[in-house]
Amino acid sequence: MTNIILCGGSGTRLWPISRTLMPKQFVKLFNDKSLFQLTLQRNSAVCDKLFIVSNSEQYFLALDQLDEINKVNNSETKYLLEPVGRNTAPAIALACLALNKDEIVLVTPSDHLVKDEEQYRKVLQEAKDLAKSDYLVTFGIKPTFAETGFGYIEADGLDAKAFHEKPDFEKATAYLRAGNYYWNSGMFCFKAGIFLDELQKYSPQIYEASLKAYENASKSTTDSTCLIRIQHQEMLNIPEDSIDYAVMEKSSKVKVVPSDIGWSDVGSFDALYDELPKDENGNSINEKYVQIDSKNNLIYGNERKITTVDIEDLIIVDTGDALLISKKGSSQKVKNIVQKIRGDSELHNIHLTAHRPWGTYTILEDNPKYKIKRIEVKPQGRLSLQKHFHRSEHWTVVSGTAVVTLGEREIPLRANESIYIPMGELHRLQNGGKLDLVIIETQIGDYLGEDDIVRIHDDYKREE
Predict the structure, then answer these.
(1) What is the spatial distance between Cα 56 and Cα 357, in angstroms, rounded to a whole number?
(2) What is the pLDDT of residue 223?
């Protein structure tokens, strides 16, 4: 069985923890592990192959986090890179096209939490047995309260009668009382070929465009990975739709496996609060937190000391460059905050520390005319060969060995040595040693945006 892991989405309801270039599935929220890593560990115990669907930025995050837990044989891992998201139906279709038609697949999001893994394995086996009989299986989570933020599946035994949109509270309460309605988990199990047959039958445009995109994709295999890159225009040509709308709501082959597995989509700060350990006052445990007469608060932040006096039922999230304060029960509105800040800042997109295929950079100071960064490059890593039109840069090596390309020259630098990069000059930074390279970069210019970069050559084949 192959686990198709869907890594799309930016998790805007968990901003400012989650951002476009570091979405919630890769943030280490539980015992220094991310939801993505927990998904890998949970499913590698029941699946012998992994198939990770992501964009190019998330691909390198996935590689790093998979390597950290060292739980999965990389030779059994496939990656499919989407240049632009087109929802779950195309993502799953493209992955299934790369598999044998009789391969049973377990499709899971990368950002869900499952606490009862013993029960999880039991429902997976039930789903797998149904999939062997050519059914499309979805996992229905037994509701514990009248949730208005999830879609529902109406069931008649194991048969799916209908899929319902997110209800209002009155409808959700009626669903809960009825006893045959389940939260739609977004997890599925079926044979790759059966899904593609049903997709071709009920959403032929998605099937045909996905098939063409897959056939024209670039494919490469190394000792550790099989990598499939979909072309940008081919991806745009695929109609955008969810697996529910495209197939599951229309097919007569759908079964529902009721699943009481301690599931959460961790889709809001209220949901996150429910899953975190708490002190005797109901506050989430945080070494940086000091309180007086404060109860039942979610406190998140690991940089500055956070102190509260006489407050209850609040959400306080501090990430260094952004501070969120909300009433508990209102955290679904956080995504609206993201829309408000999207136009005039990069706060929705990137953290102070940004992860790149070659390492990380951290913004230490950001002013209209200059910016200071700490750049860390992994051994054998190197940045793209590039130039800037609006800024010059000064690099000082803190530790490690740098090899700097400047125009036609290659210049080695060690700790305490520095170099000036003139505006418009072709340049590249490379780690020339076996330890991490750390430099301080000072940018000076009239425009210091991250998009002032022209890549001439990039080892990682990122979008220009």
Answers:
(1) 10
(2) 65
